[in-house]
């Protein structure tokens, strides 16, 4: 108990952390300040909600994906699209000419093998 009391924050720290209210300000002013702060935050939130971007804007900025699939299936759709892309790239790489073919066709020089 003594160690807890020794590390107890002082009154100024408690006021700075908003644990207790500053006693030097009248309670009516504290209530008014608190009410004004609450109204300011409320107004900011309402403004942000009213001006939030539409789904189309989010899709245009690549924040959301353009899809008609339910959210539960979006991960599977994304995995399928990735798999298709990987397959396509593998096909393209499979048909890629070798370095010897490029040398024979005079695209690469012999030393750059």
UniProtKB/TrEMBL annotation:
Gene3D superfamilies cross-referenced by the UniProt entry: 6.10.140.2040, 6.10.150.10
Keyword Repeat tagged: yes
Repeat positions for RPEL: 43-68, 87-112
One GO molecular-function entry: transcription coactivator activity
UniProt keywords, alphabetically: Nucleus, Repeat
Gene Ontology biological process terms in this record: positive regulation of transcription by RNA polymerase II
Pfam families membership: RPEL
Protein's UniProt keywords contain Repeat: yes
Region Disordered, residue ranges: 35-57
Residue spans crossing the bilayer: none
Places the protein is found: Nucleus
PROSITE patterns, A to Z: RPEL
Composition-biased stretches (Basic and acidic residues): 35-46
InterPro entries per UniProt: Myocardin-like, RPEL_repeat
SMART domains: RPEL (SM00707)
GO CC field: nucleus
Protein name: RPEL repeat protein
Top-level taxonomy: Eukaryota, Fungi, Fungi incertae sedis, Zoopagomycota, Zoopagomycotina
């Amino acid at each position: 108990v003594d160690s807890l009391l020794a590390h107890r924050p002082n009154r100024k720290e408690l006021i700075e952390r908003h644990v207790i209210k500053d006693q030097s300000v009248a309670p009516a002013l504290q209530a008014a300040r608190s009410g004004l702060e609450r109204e300011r935050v409320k107004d900011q939130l309402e403004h942000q909600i009213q001006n939030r971007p539409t789904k189309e804007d989010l899709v245009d900025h690549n924040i959301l994906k353009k899809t008609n699939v339910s959210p539960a299936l979006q991960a599977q759709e994304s995995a399928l699209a990735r798999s298709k892309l990987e397959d396509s790239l593998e096909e393209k790489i499979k048909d890629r000419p070798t370095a010897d073919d490029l040398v024979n066709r005079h695209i690469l020089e012999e030393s750059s093998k």
